[in-house]
Design goal:
By secondary structure, the chain is α+β, with helices and mostly antiparallel strands. It has helices at about 1-15, 65-75, 130-135; strands at about 55-60, 60, 80-85, 90-95, 95-100, 105-110, 115-120, 120-125, 140, 145-150, 155-160, 165-175. The N and C termini lie far apart (about 40 Å).
Length: about 180
């Protein structure tokens, strides 16, 4: 019985379901440099009257939705991909995907093929200008896009630095708060 218990605990920790150990990332002998943001790049979440105040659902999918609820809302996925290391099942839909772990939504991704996306009940065009006009000032700017934070949820708008076009949008839990 103890062998089974120890095996289950080991599998739980290995699969990301528990434990506080983080595996070191191997970078072929190269050290990874931190991303440093200038003071002008960092701001607080915008709270003006013209900005959206909640990032709880992207294209109708909430981070609290169970896999059954996702399928009820979007229909059966075009395909399902299983990532063995992370334990995430990726439900692929037209122009978006939903990552599910242990039955619940882990993230929602809208890809660049979409002409718009829906955040809560508001439809937003997939242009950086329209996103900023709707969401306001990002919480901070990363190398690869703008990040908006609200109530332990993060919305990341990926922007190609060369073209200035949106390459994708992710909604996920902000575990750092």
């Amino acid at each position: 019985m103890w062998n089974v218990t120890l095996l289950m605990v080991g599998l739980l920790i290995f699969s990301g379901g528990g434990g506080a150990v983080e595996q070191a990332q191997h970078t072929a002998g190269l050290s990874q440099l931190p991303i440093i943001h200038t003071a002008s790049e960092v701001g607080q979440a915008h709270t003006g009257d013209n900005s959206l105040k909640s990032y709880g659902a992207l294209n109708g999918i909430s981070l609290t939705d169970h896999k059954r609820e996702v399928i009820r809302k979007l229909g059966p996925p075009e395909r399902i991909e299983h990532e063995k290391l992370s334990g995430i099942a990726i439900l692929h839909y037209r122009e978006m995907e939903v990552g599910v772990r242990n039955g619940y939504t882990e993230y929602v991704h809208v890809d660049s093929r979409a002409s718009s996306f829906q955040l809560e009940n508001q439809r937003i065009s997939m242009t950086p200008a329209q996103v900023r006009a709707t969401l306001g000032q990002p919480y901070f700017k990363a190398e690869d896009g703008d990040v908006y934070l609200e109530d332990h949820n993060a919305l990341k708008v990926y922007i190609d630095p060369d073209s200035g076009q949106i390459t994708g949008i992710d909604l996920f839990f902000d575990y750092s708060q």
